[in-house]
Each structure stands twice: as C-alpha cells, then as structure tokens.
Amino acid sequence: MLEIILFYIAATVALVSTILAMTRANAIHALIYLIVSLLAVAVIFYLIGAPFVAALEIVIYAGAIMVLFVFVIMMLNLGAKGDAREKTWMRPSVWVGPALLTIVLFAELLYVISSAEGPVSTGVVGAKQVGLSLFGPYVLAVEIASMLLLAGLVGSFHLGRRYLDRAPSSELGHQQEGE
Amino acid sequence: MSELMPVLLALTILVGGVSLAAVITWWERRLLGFWQDRLGPNRLGPFGIGQVAADMIKLLFKDDWVPPFSDKVVFIFAPTAIVVAMMMGFAVVPFAPNTYILDVNIGLLFFLGMTSLAVYSVLLGGLASNNKYALLGGLRSAAQMVSYEVFMGLSLMGIVMMTGSFSLVDIVEAQADTWFCFSQTLGLVVFVVSGIAESHRLPFDLPEAEHELTAGFHTEYGGMKFAMFMLGEYLGLILISCMIVTLFFGGWMVPALIYDWLPPFIWFSVKVFLVICFFVLLRAAIPRPRYDQLMSLGWKVMLPITLINLLVTGAILLKMKGA
Amino acid sequence: MENQYANEIWPLAIYFGMVIMLVVTMLALSWVLGQKRREAATNDPFESGVVSVGGSQIRISVEFYLVAIFFVIFDLETLFIFAWAVAFFELGWAGYLSITVFIGVLVLALVYQCRSGALEWGNKTRTGLREDQLTTGEST
User: Fold this and answer.
1) C-alpha C7, offset from chain centre
2) Can you tell me the mean pLDDT for C43-67?
C-alpha cells in the first residue's frame, strides 16, 4: 500500500515537472524542473526494485549531465533576451501538430501495455547483479563503451580547442576570466 | 514504539546537525585563534560559546534582500539546495548499530549522489545573482567541485571491493578486525582531499577568494540566505567527517586495544570530532593554491593515484584469495 | 511491487519532509524578522564599491565547458568501475582483466588530455600552438 502511494506521488511529480520543463521560456527554470523530474524517476526506479539504476539516475543524470547543461547555459549567458526569443518560438502552431501525433502514439502504447501479460517488475535487481552481467556476458559492450567515451572526449576537446587557440585579446571571455 | 523510532531519529539528526554546524563555527574560530596565537571569540558566555547564539540572532534580523536585478526564484532556491542535499546525505550515515534512517545496498552511491547535487547550489547561486563576480565565482567553484567529484567515488571503490557492498552498515561491520585506513591509506588521502574540495573549504576555497572575486558565488547574498550557504558548507564538513569515520575509521567500532566502556555512538562522535579538528588544522596550516594548480592537481595527480590504488588493491585481494 | 524497499524508504520520506520544513522555516523567519531598509545604493549590484558597468552577460572562457565535458565522460566511466567493484570477488581474475583494459583506455584518455594540454588552465602553454602563432596572437 505504502509503496503504491509513494509511487503515485513520485510519478505525479515526474509528470508535472517534465511538463513544466517543456513549457518554461527561461532555460535555467526548465533545467531545474528537469532535474526534479529525474530525481522523481530515480525514486520510481527504486520502488520497482532497481536500486542501482536509481543511484545512477541521481549520480549520472541529475549530478553530471544536468551540470553540463547548466554549465552550457551559463556559458551562453543570454539573459532576458534569450527568454524573449524563446517565447516567440513557443507558438501554438509550432507545438500543436507534434503534440497531437504524440498523443496518437501514446494511446497506441497504452493499448499495447494494457494487453501485455505479466508483472511490471521481475523482483529486485541489485548492484551486484548489474556488475555480474556487465562484466560477464556483456563485457564486450563495456569495452566498446570505453572506446566510445574516449572518442567522445577527443571529439569534444577538438571542438573546444579552436576557441582555446584564439589569441587572448580577441576574446572578451579571456580578459574577464584573466586569472 | 519501533514505528516512532525513525521519526525521532530524523528529528534528532536535523536538530543535532544544525546546532552542531552552528557550534563548529565557534569552535573553529577558537581553535584557529589558539593555533594563531590569539584569542578568538571569548566574550559571550563561558569560553565565548554565547557567540553562536548571538550570531544566529543577528542573522535572523538581517535584511532579507533579494536583488531586483536577479532571477528571484532561482536566487532563493540556490541556498536551500545545498542545505537539503547535505542534510539528505546524513540519512545513510550509520551513527550506531541500528541507528540510521536508511540502510540500503546503495548507501554509498546515495551519499555520492547527494554531494553531486550540491554543485547546483553554487552554479545556480552564481547564475541567478546576475553579478559578474558571482558568475565567475560560481563557475570556478563548480568546475573545481566536479573535477574533484570524479575521483571522490573512485577512491572509495577499494573499500567496496573488500566489502562487496555499497551498504554503509556492511562497510562498518567489515572493519571489525582492521580499519580500512590501514589497507586503503591512498584511498583515505584522496578522499580527504576531494572532500575538502567538495565542501570548498580552505585551503581549497578559491571560489570565495576575497582578493579576486569578492565573495564568489554568494557575493549578492546576505542575511539568512547567506547563512544557509554557510550552514550547507558546515553540514558538508560534518558529513564528510562522518563518512571518513564510517568508511575508514570503523564507524561506531571501538578502537583496538581499548577496553569497551562507552556506547558506540560516543565512539563515533569522538572520532568525528577529531576529524573535524583535523580539517580546521588543515585550514590553519596550508596556504591556498593557485586555481590552475588546483585543477591540474586533481586531474594529473589525484586521478592517476586513485586508478593505481584500485588496480593494485584488486590484484592483491585476488592473490590473497587465490593463495 | 511488493518488496522490502518501500518499507525501508518511508523514514527517508519523513526525513525529507522535515528537511524541507526546516529550510522553509529558516527563510520565513528571516523574511518576517528581517529589517527592511532601502537606501540609494541598496539595489545596485555589489562590485567592490565600483559602480557596475554593463550587464553580467559576459563571455566565459571555453575551459569551463571542457572541464564539464571531461567530468561527464569520466563520471560515466566511474559508473562501470562501481559496477565492477561491487561484484569484485565473484568476477575474479576474468573481471580484473577486463577492468584493466577498461582503465587502460581511461588512462589513455587522461594521457591524451595531458599531452594535448587540455588540462592546462590559461592558454599559453598549449602544445597545439606553434611558437609563431603564439607571438602573432599576442601582438594583435
């Protein structure tokens, strides 16, 4: 009973904050709602018996990837001008079409799920099981993931490098930063 | 009765945490005064402990000012985030046998997650203030915190390998024979360094370096909201100390060779107190590094050390088990 | 969804509620008790006594973005190490071998970062720059 109540609270928080995240014109406000949504999803994962995934949801998504997003927003640092421009982009004619199509897909998904058999959760999957299967049958995927991350690192550095190599005086940022 | 226990415990942790954080501000100033050959606050009450209450009253009556040029909602949200995140971190700390709010098999990851959420407070505080100094201070602080967060988790993996669990209760119980500070000395050093950087205390308090960035990310903050940043910082200090004791110094376990004549919680508190004093000593003894030195220390020294520690620990453990 | 986790989590939910209440009380108390004083310069941004010029929409150097990217990538790699560490004894030497390869790639990334100067703070020592480029950069 208790877990049902907690589940519905978390699910409501996740839904409401996601909708708010989509509709905010201010990027930082939207990001804060997105972080709340991710935390709520972490609670849901925990309740359906996936504690390790719940922890990763907090550490990786809420604690790392969203930090990167906030960093980028800070670097762009658009201020009130950005909000005004964002508002002009959020016209109904832009979002009504995709929203209607998504509702069709959602209805289809609901139908498929409700006709499916069996429990949603297949018991608790602890951290140890995740480790055993990651480094057991899926060890090749882990190694490939490390290569992929290496590629991502090299790529992102080379994207940023152009701006690093610019002369200090040509970039206001470097002057302001000047330490 | 057993239903009420967690509620009482939660209340105790809440009140205890906040008052301890307040008392530490006084204790730190007294200790610093002692080490620097001066008095420190000594006027109000015995040994000046009344200073804590005086500071609190003063902060309550300060102007609750929200800058008109700031992003007001985020401005108020930022200091609450660090207090909530740090307070939530205490939920997994086992203070004594069966005395914890939550014992889950992801306890350690929960702690790491909460410390990683504390970054937002700094980032959002700096951004919402709409002040150049605050923005730069916030960015510097956040870059420092995320850099040191990478190996904060890694430095603890040696312990996880030996215990085979993320549960903090399991980790404490695994230290019944030997504390992990002997077998994981490198991990301890790295964790202490990253802990200081995470709670951005001296010597790693560059984000608040007065001579460069006025007060860093909390330049525009005053009164209670400033006090909440400070509360968050001191709660972070206590939390890190609690974690160091839990992970490396046997938690509530009694030190070897000493006859067990005190309850476990007292042992835990004594150890935490000593670790906090050590952090204050660090503040008194070590000068502040330069920002680029701080960053390269993290990436070029600490991270490789952690990885080597991990591989060596793994090899030794497997060898011992195989033999 | 019958598992013991939900029963363990309710003290946490109560504790979370209490923390939120504490924070709200602190903010509300200072809002009620705090003095309200507005003077000529109260609502100006504080910049060490200098009158603020321009907005705070300054450009930030790209190092911060790089640090954030590196952080995300390394944090993702630590996740795999977490999963390995917790199942360490069960995985044995086979797991040790695969994590050695994994950490090897990680170290490779780190070495690359160090060699290419991605971790240098301040842009003069970057090896991607030739000496003549450096001088022209500074003279302009």
Assistant:
1) 33
2) 73
